[in-house]
Amino acid sequence: MPSVPLPFVTALLLIILFVRLIRQSEPALRSATVFVGVCALLSAVVGLRWTFDSQAFRFIQPIAAALLPASAWLAFAQLAGRRMLARKWVHVVPIALVIVLSATWMQLHPPIDLVLALIFFGYGIAILRLSLKGVDTFGAARLADAPTARNAAAIVGFALILTGIIDVLLAGDFGFYRGAHSALIVAIANMLMLPVIAYAIAMVGLSAAPADAMENAEEASIHSNSSEASDADYTGTLEAIDRLMREKKLFRDPDLTLDRLARRALIPARQISAAINRAHGKNVSQSVNDYRIEEAKSLLLNTNLPITSIIFDVGFHTKSNFNREFLRLTGMTPSGFRERNELNRTSSPE
């Protein structure tokens, strides 16, 4: 029975994920879709390179690899706002360098693997730094999904750094053993790393809220006011956010993001994040979930709505997120909260 090389199996799985993302036809998924496509391309090229050892595939493989970290960065930058996307042309430079090195390999034998390692290290560290800035960095992600985006950034950052280490190992293998172990190293690396990175990026894409054309037009003016805020500014920010939540019930929007909240309040996103963190020691996602749970408690006490309806009425996307946040704030499950209060009402004296 013929065996299928591992890179081809990985490529097939990535193509399935790529097609699923395309079929959703969501603009917010564009960067994630491009990244998963790059992962599928790289895995397929690696399989072809080590199966047929063609000069054409030798030329294409490092170029496909160089596309990977840049497309990963752009996927996260899309969630972090336009400022991160301001200079897209910069990301063409390392790719162009690898194209030149790959084209001159037969004549000059430049250290492509070491250059690729530096590229992966650089982007991996940059994405890790982005994740360390906190949940509120990903202002274009749904507030409920912002922690997922942050965790995915950490996973991808570490994975890119590990991929850079693998490129160093490949350079060492070619330098000392004439590439005797390179095929095995590449196969294992692709089998382990590419699906993990692609899945994490896909989760990032799914956490992005649908964009509104009018909101996008206003974004630059809202973010441009980035001067140091005073205590009075922070107090006013908290009052404005509280008013939006209590009067407009903005927390009921399941696609609410920090950027969208900033546009509605006409306050820079960074100032909202700083004000909530200083006053409550929480990120914006946790603060908005506080309002959602308060509303859920009121509905549990004063209506006969099923819990599944309440989950979506107050702005949660999933039952698991709702149950986790409800337990965090009340110390009990929603059904336990309703049953306890019903018992208290029936046992209280007339």
From TrEMBL:
PROSITE patterns, per the entry: HTH_ARAC_FAMILY_1, HTH_ARAC_FAMILY_2
Taxonomic placement: Bacteria, Pseudomonadati, Pseudomonadota, Alphaproteobacteria, Hyphomicrobiales
Keywords: DNA-binding, Membrane, Transcription, Transcription regulation, Transmembrane, Transmembrane helix
Domain of life: Bacteria
Organism field: Phyllobacterium salinisoli
Keyword Transferase: no
GO molecular function terms noted in the UniProt entry: DNA-binding transcription factor activity; sequence-specific DNA binding
The protein's name: AraC family transcriptional regulator
Domain HTH araC/xylS-type: 235-340
TM region(s), chain numbering: 6-22, 34-52, 58-77, 89-108, 114-132, 152-171, 183-206
Keyword Secreted in annotation: no
InterPro entries: Homeodomain-like_sf (IPR009057), HTH_AraC (IPR018060), HTH_AraC-typ_CS (IPR018062)
